[in-house]
Amino acid sequence: MPASLRYLGIDPGLRATGWGVIEVTGARLTHIANGTIASNDRLGVAERLVEIERGLIEVVETWEPDGAAVEQVFVARDPVAALKLGQARAMALLVPARAGLPVAEYAANHIKKSVVGAGHAGKAQIRMMVEMLLPGCGAETEHAADALAIAICHAHSGGANARIAAAILKAEAAR
Questions:
Q1: Domains in the chain, please, with CATH?
Q2: Are strands 16-25 and 103-106 parallel, antiparallel or unpaired?
Q3: What is the DSSP annotation of 82-137?
Q4: Are 130 and 139 in contact (CB under 8 A)?
Q5: Model pTM score
Q6: Among candidate residues 158, 137, 134, the one with its CA nearest the CA of residue 69
């Protein structure tokens, strides 16, 4: 039986950060857990980032993933919203990296194409496909469903990313 790997998908947001953990054994995907870390919008940004950090630390310690994946920032029309999303994204990158996990990043269109087959799929389509690929996952929120989609995308793409990164390191070392 092939070894299994656990992947943590993170959908960053200042109000709500979704997370989802899946296990991959060969081509088989299994839902492990999912949830949403909500920050208190009456607090300042710094305190809200601490809430997100604490929540992600708890997720990493509880579910012990082998790797993590985070959605890349898209270009937003509102610079203030983009900055806040970037700060929440920093927590999503920092916590797993500090835990020694490799962290991959994927564009939203790549995630959608990997899970749904179309790069411009809507939230409802993503959630439906996540539930088909991970029967019984019962994603708590759309943020958790998106995080599971990110983890699925990483399961489909992660091996290739690791091989590409290793090849680049090998080529740079040969120079």
A1: 4-174 (3.30.420.10)
A2: unpaired
A3: HHHHHHHHHHHHHHHHHTT--EEEE-HHHHHHHHTS-TT--HHHHHHHHHHHSTT-
A4: yes
A5: 0.88
A6: 158
Note the pLDDT tens digit of each residue in 7-59.
999 999 999 999 999 999 988 999 999 999 999 999 999 999 999 999 999 99
Q: What is the rounded distance in angstroms from the CA atom of residue 29 to the CA atom of residue 7?
A: 10
Which class for 118: exposed (0-12), middle (13-18), buried (19 or more C-beta within 10 A)? exposed
Evaluate whether 106 touches 71 at the Cβ level (below 8 Å).
Answer: yes
Residue matched to tokens 């310690």: 61
Q: Which residue has the tokens 């091996």?
A: 159
CB atoms within 10 A of CB 34: 25
Q: Is 31 exposed, middle or buried (0-12, 13-18, 19+ CB in 10 A)?
A: buried
CB atoms within 10 A of CB 62: 10
Long-range contacts from 118-123, C-beta under 8 angstroms, 24+ separation: none
Residue type, 63: W
Work out whether strand 67-71 and strand 103-106 pair parallel, antiparallel, or are unpaired: parallel
Catalytic residues: 11, 71, 143
Cα 94 to Cα 102: distance, rounded to the nearest angstrom? 11
Give the residue carrying structure tokens 């943020």.
Answer: 143
Q: How many CB atoms lie within 10 A of CB 42?
A: 7
